[in-house]
Amino acid sequence: MSAAQRVTAAARPSVAPTGLFDLYRPRDGFVVVRGGHGIAADGERQRIDVPPGSAQVRRAADLAQGALASANHAAAVMGALPFDGARAAALHMPEVVHRREHVVPRPAPPAPAKRVARIRVEPKPGTYPGMVERALEHIESGRIEKVVLSRALLVESDAYLQPKVLARRLRAVDPECFVFTVALPDADSCLIGASPELLVRRSGSTVVSEPLAGTAQRDRDPARDAEIATTLLDAVKERREHRLTAEAVADCLAPFCSDLQVDERPSLIATASLWHLRTAVRGTLKPGAPDALTLAAALHPTPAVCGTPTDAALEVIRELEGFERDFYAGLLGWVDARGDGEWAVALRCAEVFGRTARLYAGAGIVAGSDPVAEDLETDAKFGAVLRALGA
C-alpha cells in the first residue's frame, strides 16, 4: 500500500471527490490540488509553531519531524512557509488528512463583472524598469549573476473574498498547476494561488524536482503561440537564466542521492497564459536520506525565486524591492510520518484578507534582460489571480 493510500485509509468517511476545496476553513485550512490528485486538511490536532527568523524552513523541518515521531503512521504536517522567515510559519498537523487521486473539478463560479474597487501598485507605477536597470548594474559589476525582482498589487474588492471560490476559479483555468488555499496565522487571512513549480517531491527512495526559469507570454493564435514557444526554447538569455536554476537544484540534491538524472536540455510547459522552461531532476535517495521538508529546506531559496549567489541576491532584493514578500516565493505542501511529501513554490499567488487581496509576481534578471520586457512579464504573471478576482 502506498503512502497516499495509507493516508486515505485513515481518513474519515469519504468526502465527495469534487469537494476538496469545500473542506477549507479559516485558521487551519489547507487544500492543494494538481491535475488528478489533491490533499486537504480536516481539523487541527497540533499547531507547529515556527517563529520568524533565520533558517526557518530548517527549523520547521526539525519541529515537524518531532511532531510526527509521536503520531500515527498516517499523520502529516502541512501548510506554508514564508520566503525569508520574516513571518511566523503556517504549519499544523490536521486531525484527518483527505486525499483524492482522481479529483473531478467542480464547475467554477463565474468571476464577478465589476467586483474590484481599487488597485494599488508596489513599487509605484513605472518604477519597476528602473529597479531592473539597477539590478543589471549589480550583475555587470560581478556582484551577482541573477536576481529575481518582484512587484505587488493591493486589490480592494467591493465584496468579501471567498478563498474556496477563488481557488475553484484558478483551478478551472490552470488545472495542471498546484492550486492552493492555505490558512495563515493572522485571523481570516489566506494564501491562494496557482503555482506551476514543484520544488521537491519525495516518495520512498525517489526524489523529484522540476525547477522552472525562463518565461514567455502565450498568444491566443495557435500558430503565433507555437512560434513563441520555439523562440523561448532557443533564447540565449532565457536558457542562461534557466541553467543557473537547474544546476543549483541538481547540485543541492546530488549529495542525498545514489543516482541522479537531469534532463540534458530544458523542455516547455504551459499554463493558461505563459510558457516556461523546465528541467526535470530525478534521483534515488541514499539510505537514511532526509524527509521531504528537510530536502525542501536544503533547496530553498533556489535561483528561480531569489538569484545567485544566494546571499548577495537576497541583499539586492532587500535593497531594491522595498516591501516584504511574506509567503510569496516561499513554500507550501506537506510531509508525512514516513518522510514522504510534496512541496511547491508559492508563485502566482495572493494573500487574501476580508475584501483585500495582495498579489505578487516576479521576474528573473540576468545579463541581457530588458527592463521593459521584464515589467511586462510580471504583468502577465498577475493575470490568473486578477481574473479570478474579476479584475
Largest sheet: 10 strands, antiparallel
Secondary structure tally, helices: 9
Question: What overall form do the CA principal axes indicate?
Answer: globular
Q: What is the C-alpha radius of gyration, as a whole number of Å?
A: 20 Å
Unreliably modeled segments: 1-17
Q: Please tell me the overall pLDDT.
A: 90
Determine the fraction of residues in helical runs and give it as a percent range. Answer: 25-40%
Distance, first to last CA:
45 Å
Count of distinct strands? 22
- Kindly estimate the percentage of residues that lie in beta strands according to DSSP: 25-35%
Q: Class by helix and strand content?
A: alpha+beta
Written overview of the protein:
The chain has 391 residues and is of the alpha+beta class. The protein is 29% helix and 32% strand. Strands 1, 2, 6, 7, 8, 9, 10, 18, 21 and 22 form a 10-stranded antiparallel β-sheet that branches. A 9-stranded antiparallel β-sheet has the order 3-5-4-19-20-11-12-17-14, with helices on one face. Strands 13-16-15 form a 3-stranded antiparallel β-sheet, with helices on both faces. β9 and β10 (189-195) form a beta hairpin. α2 runs antiparallel to α7 (292-299), α3 crosses α9 (371-389) and α4 packs across α9 (371-389). The longest helix is centred in the C-terminal third of the chain and has 19 residues, at 371-389. Residues 1-17 have low confidence and may be disordered.
